User: What shape does this take?
Amino acid sequence: MALKQFKPVTASLRGTVLIDRSELFKGKPIKGLTEGKHSTGGRNNHGRTTSYFRGGGHKKSYRLVDFKRRKFDVPAVIERLEYDPNRSSFIALIKYADGELAYIIAPQRVKVGDAVISGIKADIKPGNAMTLAAIPVGTIIHNIELKPGAGGKMARSAGTFAQLVGKDQGYAQIKLTSGELRIVRAECMASIGAVSNPDHQNQQLGKAGRNRWLGRRPHNRGVSMNPVDHPLGGGEGRTSGGRHPVTPWGKPTKGYKTRTNKRTDGLIIRRRKSGKG
Assistant: This one.
């Protein structure tokens, strides 16, 4: 998909760059593959705000996307590509040979009418899914399971992908775009190709209102608050130096590592780049 740029006939159109979604299906999603979805406004089950600057936005229905791809050896055809308000990537409606419909994450370079299949002996082409044991080393993959049968968890957002770089003793070595190298059980499923909508990162929303449609409220910095509201608040004038950046609860931020999952530490061969170099 290309990017759309606009003539600055209004102030908000100056600099606006959006995704051209003219090739996507323009109707409503399949009703049987959707569920109702309630907006939380950033509140948890106690009604307390746990995620700031959330709320409002357009009403959404949740599309039931098949992340497992466990319908083996049944060919399917891509009926249409659709926009999904719940994720940055596009989704594809596929129709199996037995008539069943399902949504999958749309990979790059697929179009309406293309055939896709899930199985051990599938071709290595975008949209097909198979176990990591059956995928050749060096292949670009997405929608990768971390546990067999649990459904894809890694590389699902727009433009993302990983690379299968090795296989050994029932495990597959996967290199992520962050630089992390980790191992996953070879029985886990993955889909071939990179995720669609790689231009998502190049969008310029252009105006505050478009952010509000997406459910994002105005974001104000800690240093602009009063001391009662944030550890970085207060001071005479515009004071922003002299203190380490912290969260509203005093924990370090901007590079402070918070990962605590010791159970899977052994599955990470090389940690991701810190981003502070």
Remarks:
- The radius of gyration is 22 Å.
